[in-house]
């Protein structure tokens, strides 16, 4: 009587084990695809942008036509003059020590530390896997976040203020 139950439990365990291994392999492949070509999105998720809101650019022909000029003001940063500003181009900008649009002379900044991207009238900041992290309003950045006027961005000893 116990032998058939024992055999059924063994087969059930093997089925669950194989399903788990297939799930792990599927997740790994999905993550590899996401790293190469951006996030893998379903049709439903495609309507949303990185901020979790609907695409802000869908209703605007050109963001700069109506005077939208986002910029980063230097609060304090090694090698930069306080009060100077960096305009954020429509293609976005990368901050870091390497070959980037906004170069930081900060030993705590990575070569490609953070990215600012424009999506219509929304500017999104994203940490690019830096060692020391990026801080938005003194909170560690975890994933892409939209910027609002007056937001403070800190990378190492460099501090910036976002303005529109």
Order of helices and strands: HEEEEEEEEEEE
Number of helices: 1
What does the overall shape look like? elongated
Poorly predicted runs are 36-49, 56-64
Helix content: 10-25%
State the total count of DSSP E strands: 11
- If strands are numbered along the chain, what order do they take across the biggest sheet? 2-1-11-10-7-8
Secondary structure class reads alpha+beta
Tell me the β content.
Answer: 25-35%
How would you sum up the major sheet?
A: 6 strands, antiparallel
* Estimated radius of gyration: 23 Å
* N-to-C span: 77 Å
Mean pLDDT: 81
How would you describe this structure to a colleague?
It is a single chain. The chain is built from one helix and eleven strands; from the N terminus they run αβββββββββββ. The chain starts with a helix and ends with a strand. With 164 residues, it is of the alpha+beta class. Strand 1 and strand 2 form a beta hairpin. The strands form two sheets. A six-stranded antiparallel beta sheet has the order 2-1-11-10-7-8, with no helix packed on it. Strands 4-3-5-6-9 form a five-stranded mixed beta sheet, with no helix packed on it. It is 22% helix and 26% strand. The radius of gyration is 23 Å and the shape is elongated. The longest helix has 36 residues.
């Amino acid at each position: 009587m116990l032998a058939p139950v024992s055999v059924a439990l063994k087969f059930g365990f093997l089925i669950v084990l194989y399903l788990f291994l297939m799930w792990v392999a599927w997740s790994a492949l999905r993550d590899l695809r996401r790293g190469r070509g951006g996030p893998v999105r379903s049709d439903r998720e495609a309507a949303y942008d990185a901020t979790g809101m609907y695409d802000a650019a869908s209703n605007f022909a050109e963001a700069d036509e109506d005077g939208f000029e986002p910029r980063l003001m230097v609060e304090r940063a090694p090698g930069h003059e306080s009060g100077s500003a960096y305009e954020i181009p429509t293609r976005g900008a990368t901050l870091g020590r390497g070959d980037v649009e906004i170069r930081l002379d900060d030993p705590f900044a990575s070569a490609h530390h953070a990215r600012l991207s424009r999506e219509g009238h929304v500017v999104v900041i994203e940490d690019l896997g830096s060692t020391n992290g990026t801080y938005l309003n003194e909170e560690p950045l975890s994933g892409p976040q939209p910027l609002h006027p007056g937001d403070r961005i800190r990378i190492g000893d460099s501090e910036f203020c976002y303005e529109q």
